[in-house]
Each structure stands twice: as structure tokens, then as C-alpha cells.
Amino acid sequence: MSKSKRLIVGLGNPGPEYEATRHNIGFEAADAVAERARAPFERGRGNVLLGWGRIRSYPVGVAKPLTFMNRSGKAISVLLGVWRMEPRQLLVIVDDINLPPGRLRLRPSGSAGGHNGLQDIADRLGHPNFPRLRIGVGNDFARGGQARHVLSPFSSEERLVMDKAVIRARDAVETFVCEGISVAMNRFNKDVTQ
Fold first, then answer.
1. Which residues are marked as active site?
2. pTM
């Protein structure tokens, strides 16, 4: 694994009204990664908050697009262009209603699986071939209630699970950066949600 730089992007919605909602778990994980990498956020090109630091000796950029979730692709394509990086150097962190709360799922590429943020990135890049880390937020909602569900906060019981998931996501990112996607998948795609 070369020590070329990596770009970690957590997806979410900007603004205080969206803080601590299910849809913003990507932002929470990005915050944890930025703290580990000692990468303070500053306003960057492409309408993002961006910080550069290191995990072990590996250079890592951590970003949070300030576009809304469903328009994340433009910010990411600008970042990749500015920093002359390939999509394989990218890891996008998103919420996933198809996974139980706290479950992690890393993949080197794949479909958007109904996630509009991932779909917008794939549309902008022209392909879905970029690594992603999905964090389960559950799907306990009535038919037609998906939008309300992802924009709602976690219950106090779920919050305990999600706090642990954010730490595991940070550790999964560290493994991705230092040891590669395959090792990270083998280590973190296990059903550990407690």
C-alpha cells in the first residue's frame, strides 16, 4: 500500500437543524476521523469544509461538503480535481437505512443502493467505482416515512449504539488508509453493532 494521500468525505446536510440526525452520521464520522488525523476544518474550494492531516504517517484529507446531501457529487469532483486524486483514493461515508443501527459495510465500489448522495457522486464521476463506508441507521418507519426518518435524531438507546459505530467507523477509515480496502472490509464488515 503506497503512502499516497487519501480523501475521506463524510456526507450530511449543513446547518444546525440537521445536526445529530440520522442523515448526518457521515459528518459525525468525518469529525472523528479529522480529530484522529489532527486535521482542523477550513473552508475549501468546491463548497466544503476540508482539513489535511496524517493518520500514522499517511497523508489524509477529511471533507464535509456544504452542499446538501443530494448534491455532494460536485463538491467531491472539485476536490478530486484540485488535489489530483483518483476515485480509488476516496472513501465516502454515508448513512444507510438498509442496515441495522450501528452496522458498518465497506465496499470498493457498487450501486448507490437508493442513496441519493452516492448516486449524485456516481453521476458526477461518470461511474460508481469509488470506495464507500455505509453506517446503518435502521429502517423503523412507516411506508412513506423515509424522509422524516433520516432527518430525525436517534433515540437515546440508538444514540449509544451510534456513538460506538462512529468510533468503529473512524477505526475502519484508519485501516482503509493504512492497510487498504480489503483488510478494512475483512475487519469491519462483521455484524458488530453493540
1. 23
2. 0.93
